[in-house]
Amino acid sequence: MPEEANAILVAGLPEEAARIASALRAAGPYPVWLAEEDFPPEAIGCLVAYRPPPGLLARLPRLRLVHGTGAGVDALLADPDLPPVPLGRVVAPELSRMMVHHVLAALLRHLRRGETYAAQQRERLWLRHPPRDVEAFRVVVLGTGALGGAVLQALSALGIPAAGWNRRSGPLAEALAGAMAAVVLLPATPATRGILGRRELAALADDALVIAAGRGGQVDEEALLAELDAGRLSAALDVFNEEPLPPASPFWTHPRCVVTPHIAAAPDPAAVARCVLESMARIARGEPPLFPVDRARGY
Ligand code: NDP
Ligand code: OXD
Hints:
By secondary structure, this protein is α/β, with parallel strands linked by helices. The strands form 2 sheets. A 6-stranded parallel β-sheet has the order 7-6-8-9-10-11, with helices on both faces. A 5-stranded parallel β-sheet has the order 2-1-3-4-5, with helices on one face. The protein has 2 domains: 7-90 and 267-284, NAD(P)-binding Rossmann-like Domain (Rossmann fold, 3-Layer(aba) Sandwich), CATH 3.40.50; 93-259, NAD(P)-binding Rossmann-like Domain (Rossmann fold, 3-Layer(aba) Sandwich), CATH 3.40.50.720. Strand 9 (209-212), helix 8 (221-229) and strand 10 (234-237) form a beta-alpha-beta unit. It has helices spanning 14-27, 74-77, 93-111, 114-122, 146-157, 172-176, 198-203, 221-229, 269-284; strands at 7-10, 32-34, 44-49, 65-68, 87-88, 139-142, 162-165, 181-184, 209-212, 234-237, 257-259. Helix 1 (14-27) packs across helix 9 and helix 3 (93-111) packs across helix 5 (146-157). The structure holds NADPH dihydro-nicotinamide-adenine-dinucleotide phosphate and oxalic acid.
């Protein structure tokens, strides 16, 4: 009986993959290869990737674990060559903290009228405005998992009224009625596609902020753009239907929109290594990964 394959293969953007590979080597006993190296396919027991290059999974006959480099594994689930082995993802305080900072940066900028002062500064205008009313500032966080839960805790600590929304909650438009901000932190599944549509956006209060940091396709971009153009809503968008955001997208230059290039919570190499190595130990004992993905649910 040949020994179980126990080498780890890391695929991804070169610098990011190299950092994750270094963290895996520093913290674990397993041989670690990068996808662009001449790795021995028979030795690879675990692939670590966000979106494997097409065909890579089909070249790995002895996989025992596939592990994401982040929280969302939709790109792995969409790979036609994904074998029926356990699938793990990253849940880590480092990742949650990054997401909390991203969401707070956008919310606080909005509360303190950052967009107005940025425009005024370009015009050398010294004009004061009252901040938006924090007491009236009800936030709805779509997704109450590892990331949404951390955001809700942070908002509560700051005294910003907030409520979570998940699969057990009622209709989304009702939850959003009159809210001053919607923070989208949902996984990409068929059920979450287009979940923030025209009706849901219309339910938000005038002058509300939409923060999209889950996955592209969850917010109806056309309906959102119409709300921005009408001067009714503002947005902080980190994820888009198409990434990179095409140069012609109106979001780039919209005065009511802040665009970031899918960086709300980037993979933290030490956190990825921790989750992967613990999951490999569990797989060796015949247990599920540390943070298993439920394929039927899609996250
Ligand atoms: P979790 O799996 O911990 O939480 C997911 C949450 O979404 C749960 O509360 C779940 O509800 C809810 N949910 C799922 N489907 C639905 C649905 N159809 N209707 C209502 N609620 C639903 O995920 P994380 O918090 O770890 O991560 C969330 C997502 O954030 C990731 O999947 C990824 O796409 C995105 N992300 C984006 C990053 C970025 O840089 N922009 C960085 C990291 C992650 P329930 O509790 O009922 O199961
Ligand atoms: C993730 C991401 O899902 O970086 O972790 O988008």
